């Protein structure tokens, strides 16, 4: 993985909205990047329109006929498993005149029927029936031409399903690069595999989507923003420390925090708040993991907590419990977030209950962390209005230079610095301010 240093090969484009200067050790982002509707449209086109996007996990639709409707990059989609068991992803728009076809958020069906003129499509996309079809009878190939439109690219890694609206994007593994390895580590936790828990936590934030990314890649805010949670951990006998925690640039905008100081991990690293019963099970599970994966890989999977960001819309929290978070920009100042609990398939009921309780108590929408985080990024969105069109243009920039001096000396960037955010913004700038392609 790439060290976060000033020699980072990602380049330093001093473009209009992202300024980076390693002589002056400054890195700043113009606040219009969070506010501008025009820029938002550009992001939808240049990022969301031309890269892989996380859609969902294949265990969300385990049975033939299962479907979820979901919106990515503003486009309504149907994510389903057809009757033969194959995963299909369709644009959720009737091929007749474009009406949203599936109006349910989830379910199981053999057919999707449009409410407007009642055209019906099979779960593999064929136009199966249309009322009064004798009026179309003389037109050859009509039904074939009006099958449901599939998104151009669908691929998956370890059950994580991604789509791309641009048929010419590089393959998924190329896009994921080093991030694929860290997704695989999480996927290896359970001897019988991993799955999402049915149900989704959906919430809407009055803030720009990039603030959600920054917040997840920002260890600097952990102690001050979440001091209630830190106090709770200390009271339960768990030492929280920011030492030896690092940030990594995984290339192409993907980022990783490896956290050793916040490290109770269900089934992997025991701590008192998990209860005595878990202590023994954790030791047994570690042995199982070592036998299955080998000592070294088991240690990499189990020992440290990780927060992985896969550019541009997936966050994988592999902490005391596991959660998948998907970011969907709605407008410049609004973002929808979906979160799923990610669990070991076949684990005992009491462990499942502990895992869910532990996760929702911290990063759930009503937990000890996420409401603080949402308040932080909504407060940023409100606060940056103050300096818009300011008489002194210097007021309208946000600083992200923390840790540059350390990185310039060739040291690994720390999670409590702002290097992971800088990597993200460099990629953002390449995409949005370059010619729209990564590395341009
Ligand atoms: S728009 Fe769907 S059947 Fe007419
Ligand atoms: Fe936080």
UniProtKB/TrEMBL annotation:
Residue numbers spanned by region Disordered: 401-420
Keywords (A to Z) from UniProt: 2Fe-2S, Dioxygenase, Iron, Iron-sulfur, Metal-binding, NAD, Oxidoreductase
Family classification: Belongs to the bacterial ring-hydroxylating dioxygenase alpha subunit family.
Annotated signal peptide: none
Domain Rieske, chain residue ranges per copy: 53-163
InterPro entries given in the database record: ARHD_Rieske_2Fe_2S, Rieske_2Fe-2S, Rieske_2Fe-2S_sf, Ring_hydroxy_dOase_asu_C_dom, Rng_hydr_dOase-A
Pfam families attached to this UniProt entry: Rieske, Ring_hydroxyl_A
Record-given protein name: SRPBCC family protein
């Amino acid at each position: 993985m790439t060290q976060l240093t000033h020699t980072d090969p990602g380049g330093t484009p001093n473009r209009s909205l992202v300024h980076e200067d390693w002589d002056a050790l400054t890195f700043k982002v113009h606040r219009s990047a969070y506010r501008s509707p025009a820029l938002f449209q550009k992001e939808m086109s240049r990022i969301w329109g031309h890269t892989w996007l996380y859609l969902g996990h294949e265990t969300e639709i385990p049975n033939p006929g299962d479907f979820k409707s979901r919106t990515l990059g503003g486009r309504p989609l149907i994510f389903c498993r057809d009757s033969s068991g194959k995963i299909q992803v369709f644009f959720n728009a009737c091929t007749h005149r474009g009406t949203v076809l599936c109006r349910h958020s989830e379910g199981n069906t053999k057919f999707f029927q449009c409410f407007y003129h009642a055209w019906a499509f099979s779960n593999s996309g064929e136009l199966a029936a249309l009322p009064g079809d004798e009026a179309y009878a003389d037109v050859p190939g009509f039904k074939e031409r009006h099958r449901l439109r599939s998104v151009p690219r669908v691929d998956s890694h370890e059950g994580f399903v991604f789509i791309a609206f641009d048929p010419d994007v590089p393959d998924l593994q190329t896009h994921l690069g080093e991030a694929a390895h860290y997704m695989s580590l999480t996927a290896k936790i359970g001897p019988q595999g991993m799955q999402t828990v049915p149900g989704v936590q959906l919430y809407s934030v009055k803030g720009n989507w990039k603030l959600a990314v920054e917040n997840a890649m920002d260890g600097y805010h952990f102690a001050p923003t979440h001091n209630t949670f830190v106090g709770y951990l200390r009271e339960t006998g768990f030492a929280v420390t920011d030492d030896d925690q690092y940030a990594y640039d995984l290339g192409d905008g993907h980022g990783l925090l490896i956290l050793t100081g916040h490290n109770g991990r269900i089934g992997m690293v025991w701590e008192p708040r998990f209860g005595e019963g878990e202590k023994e099970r954790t030791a047994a599970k570690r042995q199982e993991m070592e036998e299955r994966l080998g000592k070294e890989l088991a240690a990499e999977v189990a020992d440290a907590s990780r927060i992985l960001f896969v550019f541009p819309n997936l966050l994988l929290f592999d902490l005391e419990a596991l959660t998948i978070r998907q970011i969907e920009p709605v407008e410049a100042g609004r973002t929808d977030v979906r979160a799923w609990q990610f669990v070991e398939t076949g684990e005992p009921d009491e462990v499942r209950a502990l895992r869910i309780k532990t996760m929702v108590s911290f990063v759930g929408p009503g937990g000890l962390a996420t409401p603080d985080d949402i308040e932080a990024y909504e407060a940023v969105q409100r606060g940056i209005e103050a300096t818009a069109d300011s008489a002194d243009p210097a007021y309208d920039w946000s600083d992200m230079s923390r840790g540059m001096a350390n990185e310039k000396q060739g040291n690994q960037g720390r999670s409590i610095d702002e290097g992971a955010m800088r990597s993200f913004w460099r990629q953002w700038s390449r995409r949005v301010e370059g010619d729209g392609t990564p590395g341009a």
